[in-house]
Write a structure and sequence with these properties.
CATH topology of the largest domain: Rossmann fold
Distance between the termini: 69 Å
Shape: globular
Number of helices: 9
Radius of gyration: 20 Å
Helix content: 25-40%
Strand content: 25-35%
Oligomer: single chain
Strand order of the largest sheet: 5-6-7-3-8-9
Number of domains: 2
Largest sheet: 6 strands, mixed
Amino acid sequence: MNAINILDLTVRYSDKLVLDQVSCAFKNNHLTALIGANGCGKSTLLKTINGNIRAQSGQITLADGQNTYQIDTKLLAKRISMLPQTPITPEGVTVKQLVSYGRAPYLNFLGQLSEDDKEHVSKAMKLADISDLADRSVSALSGGQRQRAWIAMVLAQDTETILLDEPTTYLDMSHQYELLDIARDLVNRHGKTVIVVLHDLNQACRYADQLVIVHKQTIYDQGSPKKVFTEQMLSEVFNLDARVIEDPESKTPMAIPRATRQTPTATLI
């Protein structure tokens, strides 16, 4: 079953065509990585799925057949959550307060957290391993801690589908893998559907069940990494001359750029 189906989606920014008749599907209880060169439309696709951007044509439907454009914004926020590339942290907010913002779609007309809301906030912080940071100011956290706090906010929203737009940007290597382990765990242990934009192709292959490859404002290919991550794809989509081998640790495809011939340098006299 597919969590999200996209058919003939076209998006423009003023006169600029960003997505051109995009059709693809995101499987339920899978981690899907969106990959493609810079500016190809990956982030725009996420924002359109989340309802932040309105498409000029085409449709997005959920597993039950509902068109996202026909769902009330608050109801859609109970089904799809998104962590943008560069979220802005409100001044003076603690970690617990930030995570509680994820409960906004569920609040009563007074804007008060119920006991159920508080339980979701506590559970989300535990899943993101930041319970001990609850009373810390978000602005005082390290990059990795801050990103986990934002992830916890998304988890508190308790949606069936989670969209992550380049969540590993600005994180060091260990924190990148730590965050992707959390994303993988959300699928394996909690039955979530996760769609993530990644620039590191080897990480995408290691963690994703499915790749959706965006190229020239449309879908180049989609499928399992072993099926679609090929040397031809790397050449055509990324202009990258690379070998595809098996990662010795994860047994997933891995790109190894071929050595480029060095231009001889003149001998200084």
